[in-house]
Amino acid sequence: MTEPSYLAAIRESYDTVADDYVNVAPARFAEDALGRGMLAAFAESVRANGGRPVADVGCGPGHVTVHLDSLGVSASGVDLSPRMVEIARRAYPALRFDVGSMTALDFPDGHLGGIVAWWSIFHLPPEALPVVFAEFHRTLAPGGLLLVGFHVGDGRLRPERAYGHPVSYDTHLLQPDDLGELLHRAGMVVTARLVEEPGGTRPQACLLARKPDPLQGYDHR
């Protein structure tokens, strides 16, 4: 099966920027108190729901994966970029990192207690998101949680450079209500959201969703 061109562009771009990205992204994450708060709530809920493994999908150099590990969940990372995975493995040898695509996750059905997609879906065209969310739903156990972080807005950006290097990916801005509807169609229930007010920079948002568990009475509405 031929790989979509957008996946090749994402892989090539992040392989190119990886060595400089690792000097920027972890520092930004360290300043994101609101985002870390959502991750803490996510981790607490995963632990309360049985503590199944968590996948950090689009993990980059692994800084969010190791943060999840520090919050008491069994976390591993998946990224499309082999160079990013190489950096993550070297930095955090005690954790597992694999090269893979969120469009076809290498996990059995119902295996995961949680998935984090931390600013990793916004390079995907909107028409690809139903496939990705179906994979998230497939691999989550009943009652499993999904936390998605993304940039708020409308339309598509086509940056020519990032982190000091040429890139060929697109950046897609998303509205929380639209993303929530896509999650609903994939069989997920959005349980919480965090949306920054518009300011000097592009607003960001997080959605927390759950795969319904009939035994616990979570319905799909």
Automatic annotation (TrEMBL):
Biological-process GO terms, alphabetical: methylation
InterPro entries recorded: Methyltransf_25 (IPR041698), SAM-dependent_MTases_sf (IPR029063)
Cell membrane keyword on record: no
Domain Methyltransferase: 54-144
Pfam families to which the protein is assigned, alphabetical: Methyltransf_25
A Gene Ontology molecular function term of the record: methyltransferase activity
CDD domains recorded: AdoMet_MTases (cd02440)
Keywords carried by this UniProt record: Methyltransferase, Transferase
UniProt key word Transferase: yes
Listed name of the protein: Methyltransferase domain-containing protein
Organism from which the protein derives: Micromonospora pallida
Record lineage: Bacteria, Bacillati, Actinomycetota, Actinomycetes, Micromonosporales
